[in-house]
Specification:
GO terms for molecular function: metal ion binding; methyltransferase activity; uroporphyrinogen decarboxylase activity. InterPro entries: Methanogen_methyltrans, Mtase_MtaA_CmuA, UROD/MetE-like_sf, Uroporphyrinogen_deCOase. This is Uroporphyrinogen decarboxylase (URO-D) domain-containing protein. By secondary structure, the protein is of the alpha/beta class. The protein has a single domain, classed as TIM Barrel (Alpha-Beta Barrel). The protein is built from 16 helices and 9 strands. The strands form 2 sheets. It has a 7-stranded parallel beta sheet, sandwiched between helices. It has a two-stranded antiparallel sheet with strand order 2-3. A hairpin with an 8-residue loop joins strand 2 and strand 3. The radius of gyration is 19 Å and the shape is globular. The two termini are 20 Å apart. 53% of the residues are buried.
Length: 343
């Protein structure tokens, strides 16, 4: 029996076509310790060394049977390139922003012409080239990056960002424009280097963080520029938490897929709204409650609920905790196989 071409299946699904079976993988970060041990590529080296980044990404397929290669393994690459001070983290601790360049001055910086040569961006681009050669035409390369609001809050600090959405929205508008331009420049180069899908992850856009109205007026106009600027390259938008009030707005941004967290209150309704707009839905097994703390049977039960709700891709709802057991990742694939076998 001929092995399925996972890359073709995932790209077809993002185009609104029906795959042979529901794809399984992750569109969010996967810095799993067991994968580091099995692949011989651990962070923090795998966060900055292209060969190790590629090796750890490829282990998602080799050791977890995922049908996606998702990298890098943190969400501060653009922030670092734009001048944020970063805690590089450890094997079990993700890199994080310590402070941003706008915390001393509210002046919105210019987009640097040499952005793509700054920080770890060149490492991600080189890892993309390595993975494209290694994966050939059969596995999809999925590059994640922080979205405009997440990036903006890294530059000026989250407390200041949230205050400014109310008191100084004109600064937020300028800042989001800068951050959107940075996302576009980076995303285009990732696609040019061989990536198949760009994931824009934006926790700060969640209704848990800012009001739906603030998202619509301050964030959405920039967010909607991103898919249009990618020249047909595939793109996915991930927003954390209970995003139900902004599902229609998310679809109107024009991404090929929406990655939804388990915080969604009505997954079936969200799926229907997205499908009416021709947008695929990715998700959304709980990363903290089920994949991290549960067992394989818990994973399968929740996975079945997601698939019965109509998701197009079975995936973790958000970034995986480093201590997530590998057996639970494999249970996602087993659940899909059982579900599709029974249908």
């Amino acid at each position: 029996m001929e092995k399925p071409n996972f890359r073709t299946e995932i790209l077809r699904t993002l185009e609104g076509k029906t795959p042979a079976q529901i794809p399984v993988g992750t569109f969010t970060t996967a810095p799993v310790l067991e994968l580091m041990d099995l692949s011989g590529a651990a962070r923090p080296e795998a966060d900055s060394q292209p060969e190790k980044m590629a090796l750890l990404a490829f282990s998602q397929y080799v050791n977890a049977s995922f049908e996606t290669l998702r990298y890098p393994f943190d969400m501060v690459v653009l922030g670092e390139a734009l001048g944020c001070t970063i805690d590089p983290g450890t094997k079990a601790k993700t890199p994080a922003v310590l402070n941003g360049p706008m915390e001393l001055s509210p002046a919105v910086p210019e987009l640097p012409g040499d952005l793509l040569e700054r920080g770890r961006i060149s490492a991600v681009l080189k890892a993309t080239e390595i993975l494209r050669e290694k994966a050939g035409s059969t596995l999809p390369l999925i590059v994640g990056m922080e979205g405009p609001a997440d990036l903006a809050s890294s530059l000026c600090g989250i407390t200041r960002f949230l205050k400014w959405t109310i008191k100084r929205p004109h600064i937020i508008t300028r800042l989001i424009d800068l951050c959107t331009d940075a996302c576009i420049m980076y995303a285009r180069e990732c696609l040019k280097s061989g990536a198949d899908v760009v994931v824009i992850a934006d926790a700060v856009s969640s209704p848990d963080m800012i009001s739906p109205e603030a998202f619509r007026t301050l964030i959405k106009p920039g967010m909607a520029r991103i898919p249009k600027a990618l020249g047909g390259g595939k793109s996915v938008l991930h927003i954390c938490g209970a995003a139900d009030p902004i599902i229609t707005d998310m679809t109107e941004c024009g991404f090929d897929g929406l990655s939804l967290e388990e915080g969604i209150k009505d997954l079936k309704s969200a799926v229907n709204t997205a499908h009416e707009a021709g947008t695929a839905v990715i998700g959304s097994v709980s990363t903290s409650r089920t994949l991290f703390r549960g067992g394989p049977e818990d994973v399968k039960k929740e996975a079945f609920t997601c698939m019965e709700s109509g998701v197009d891709f079975l995936a973790p709802g958000c970034g995986l905790a480093p201590e997530t057991p590998l057996r639970n990742l494999k249970a996602l694939v087993e659940a899909r196989n059982e579900f599709c076998g029974r249908k």
